[in-house]
Model the fold of this input.
Amino acid sequence: MALDLRVNGKPYAVNVEPRRTLLDALRHDCGLTGTKKVCDMGNCGACTVILDGRTVYACLVLAAECENQSVTTIECSDQDEAPWLSALQQAFIDHDAFQCGYCTPGQLMSLSALFSKNSTPDEQAITDAVAGNLCRCGAYRHILKAASAVADAERAKWADP
Ligand code: FES
Ligand code: FES
Done:
């Protein structure tokens, strides 16, 4: 079936079988391999993307369901679509928040969705946001530190001088 997808603000015309998942469509038909395929069954969160503002596991969504919706992935450089992504990416680098990096795109998309709703989340809100993202390298403490640093920087902007 012919589908018109909108990913990171850009149009992608793809031709796929009806059973094609969003994850496979992104990776194989759109050439966007930043979204990772690990379990392919909704267990790990490596494939997390943002669909119309909410996080989804792309391996559990059919590409055909995504027409007329906005898909945001780790490749997004559009500040309007993912305003927190670059700050979070830099914080991950600064705080050494990954080892193999396989879970990293999913972690970042979950956090990006959180910050779009709450720019100063506390530790509990950050932990809740990435609860569906497994990290086999155990980088959880550093992921929390990185996201907390972004929240702290935002809080500092609004603090009284
Ligand atoms: S690859 Fe989708 S949840 Fe693991
Ligand atoms: S950094 Fe390796 S799985 Fe998270």
Notes: The pocket of FE2/S2 (inorganic) cluster (ligand 1) is lined by residues 37-40, 42-47, 57, 59 (CB under 6 Å).
